[in-house]
Amino acid sequence: MPSWIRAVILPLSGLLLTLPAAADVKARSCSEVRQAYGAKGFSLADIPYQEIAGEHLRICPQEYTCCTTEMEDKLSQQSKLEFENLVEETSHFVRTTFVSRHKKFDEFFRELLENAEKSLNDMFVRTYGMLYMQNSEVFQDLFTELKRYYTGGNVNLEEMLNDFWARLLERMFQLINPQYHFSEDYLECVSKYTDQLKPFGDVPRKLKIQVTRAFIAARTFVQGLTVGREVANRVSKVSPTPGCIRALMKMLYCPYCRGLPTVRPCNNYCLNVMKGCLANQADLDTEWNLFIGKRHSTGPITKT
């Protein structure tokens, strides 16, 4: 044996002979773990005062440990609960934002409709008096159908507006010619030639364009807010898989079992666990971003 190797080994062998055997190492205290475990509301009767052999552990490393079987089970359930609460809390802002935006826009648009109907009614009462009041249901039906379309009813806007002008023409034709009695067939024939006769000038065409644009945009927007709220509600209800629960337990509470309750997982480790637990939700990421992007055209959803 070369002299330089002997010069290194002999001092080391002497040092090793002076170290205590593994069996002689005193078990570490579980006092920090007991404090942290009790702070979460668990009974301290479940936890030993010093480390014990860990062959009974099913998730955490089977080393000397501060965890009993009961502790591992309870901490596993605690990790599941904390994860579910965290997802619920994180998605709360998105859900409440969609709800509040929907409520504000719906109130705003309904108020516009009510004001428009009231203003039109007041103006026509002042202008035409009893003549209008006797035929006001034509206009009331128009606003009823507009409201029904806005709230998602099966209404064809173009057909509904055409019917309105046709009905209005029939009423006016009768009022202008009270000395005559017209059959239903005759009045229907008159209404069929509304486009050719143009008794209201270019007003029906312009109104149709304006009403169609406004109501299609309003209905689409309010329905989009409803869909966003429903998606956020469903996604926030997470049911962790057994594999996810094991990963959460290893990340959050296996340090307790090793006597290190203050140790926190690194950022990359946490991200990997979250990606695994939220794999189904992650599949929605692309479509959700596209959806939010479209909503940005009418106002971004940001915290204020």
From TrEMBL:
GO terms for biological process: regulation of signal transduction. Keywords: Cell membrane, Glycoprotein, GPI-anchor, Heparan sulfate, Lipoprotein, Membrane, Proteoglycan, Signal. Residues 1-23 form the signal peptide. The keyword Protease does not apply. It is found in: Cell membrane. Transmembrane segments: none annotated. GO terms for cellular component: Golgi lumen; plasma membrane; side of membrane. Cell surface proteoglycan. Belongs to the glypican family. This is Glypican-6. It comes from Mus musculus. The gene is Gpc6.
